[in-house]
Amino acid sequence: MKKLVIIGSIGLVIVVALIIWAFIAGLGVVSERLPQWISGAERVGGVAIEKAKEAFPMIEGKAKEVSPEITEKIKGVLPGGEIPEKDVGGEDISGVPRQPDMIRISFNISGGKRTVGYKGKADLAAVIDFYNKEMSALGFKKKVLSASAREEVHEYNKGKRALEFTFKKADKLGVVMTEMVIREL
């Protein structure tokens, strides 16, 4: 009986050692090939996005023929589908230039102060740079209130006038877009 327990224990140790060895060897193979797998996945993903961009206009055209309700639902997933073709009602804040690629998507007045939202197919950094240059040329002083890779909030002041700009990256299906809100303070 004692020999059977010893042989069983040795067998168990050997099995555990083989499992550990297989796990370590597997990790070595995975870590060696992981960069190749990731780059392959990026290429496949890029091709899929390009094919989707090509197919979406045809899908939208067919949907318009079939049903207006389907067209509205499809616009939610189409690149840039959330951007209206023209400005919504309301008005821009006077004296504030508008970046050429931006469409007004919202307008609100509360307590006599205006808030205007814009969205466009433009790079976040390019939109921020445009407003930094334009507002500086108009004599406004800039203060960055917060910043991250996806969003920045700036305050521009000139005398008693203060404006808050919120810039957000709004990319969708590989289409570069920026959304921004200008608020009178």
Structure explained in plain terms:
It is a single chain. This protein is 47% helix and 26% strand. It is α+β, with helices and mostly antiparallel strands and 185 residues long. The chain folds into 2 domains: 2-75, no CATH class; 102-184, Alpha-D-Glucose-1,6-Bisphosphate, Chain A, domain 4 (2-Layer Sandwich). The longest helix has 65 residues, at 2-66. The protein is elongated, with a radius of gyration of 28 Å.
Compact description:
Helices cover 47% and strands 26% of the residues. The chain is elongated.
What key attributes describe this structure?
2 domains; elongated; 185 residues; Alpha-D-Glucose-1,6-Bisphosphate, Chain A, domain 4; alpha+beta
The strands making up the biggest β-sheet line up spatially as: 1-2-6-5-4-3
Q: Roughly how many Å apart are the termini?
A: 87 Å
| Top CATH class of the largest domain | Alpha Beta
How many helical elements? 3
Write the layout of secondary structure elements.
Blueprint: H1 2-66, H2 68-75, E1 102-110, E2 113-120, H3 124-137, E3 141-147, E4 151-158, E5 161-169, E6 178-184
Antiparallel strand pairs: 1-2, 2-6, 3-4, 4-5, 5-6
Helix pairs in contact: 1-2
